[in-house]
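pasting for the record
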Amino acid sequence: MKLATDLKTFFSDWRNLLALGTLGAIGAWVYSRVWMVNPAILGDEYLYSINARKVGPWDPAPVGDFSNYLFNFVYQSTNLCGGAFYTCGKILNLVFFLGFIFIIFIVALRFMPFWAAYAFMIAAGLSPLSVYTSMFLPESMYFFFIGLLLLAVLKATTEFTVRNWAIAGAVIGIASLVKPHAWLSAIAVGITLVVIGLTQKHVGFKGTLFSGLALVGGAVVARIVVGLAVGGTKALGFLWSVLRRGHNRAGR
């Protein structure tokens, strides 16, 4: 109910509608710059393309398992485009990139006046980050999920509850299925949780501890559940191998 009210309030402001219209213009401009671009990082793009397009999402990866199971699952749809799969990949990249830029705008509104946030959105949309929309790589999709993580963490720091931190953890787990680099963000999120939790009297050590457990639990559960859905049992194999390597290093 609150979400519906927030959406109604957001769309009733003509300035926000202007931002959405500008987002469409940014998308058109970016696409006009990249639609004719051929593979730029041929080695990486070839590997990601083969893994996403040449086998089923639950089959073993033919050219190396990079733990990009959600990326492979979504971008396998480019097979529907036949020989134009590379163009369809760019369109998917553009959708995720614009989603990321919109999230940046939403976050900026929390800290800036509208016109400053609007200018920041345009600057981000026209920045060199848009180059990734031209490549068959998981970066654009990864940016989008990291943007969602930023929103989730901001929500959790504002309303410090176990539920909100579990949601933030779940986003990390899902983002790791796009690029495993998402686990690195867990370090920053964990530090944020500890610092804010221990410096707020109404949270204290107990609240911080349970929230931390919720963060870890949410990440692991989301990784396992979504990983099984989009990648099959090999998603678990990759997770266990990472944990095993970490345990072996700790034992040395």
